[in-house]
Amino acid sequence: MPKVFQKGAYRFFFVSSDGDEPYHIHVREGKRIAKFWVSPVRLQKNIGFTPNQLRQIEKLIKEHKEQIKEAWDEYFSS
Fold first, then answer.
1. In the beta sheet, which residues pair with residue 12?
2. DSSP 22
């Protein structure tokens, strides 16, 4: 699971088998995990994050959107 970036306790990463899906990012903090589509940014799946945490995560994804897309293209085009 390639890490794209980390912000505090939130680890943002890809899952190697997801290359056939539209680009997205997973985020984990402890046992909590979520998946967000990136364009447009929207929640796809959530296990354990509170609504406030999801808003914070969504903001971080928007701030790093270009970095996520570049990392996705680089990782899944190889």
1. 5, 27
2. P
pLDDT digit of tens for each residue in the chain (78 aa)? Answer: 789 999 999 999 999 888 889 999 999 999 999 999 999 999 999 999 999 999 999 999 999 999 999 999 999 886
Structural domain including 10 reads: 3-76
Q: DSSP strand E in 1-78: where?
A: 3-7, 10-13, 24-29, 32-38, 41-47
The count of domains in the chain is 1
Tokens at 52, concatenated: 């406030």
Q: Is 76 exposed, middle or buried (0-12, 13-18, 19+ CB in 10 A)?
A: middle
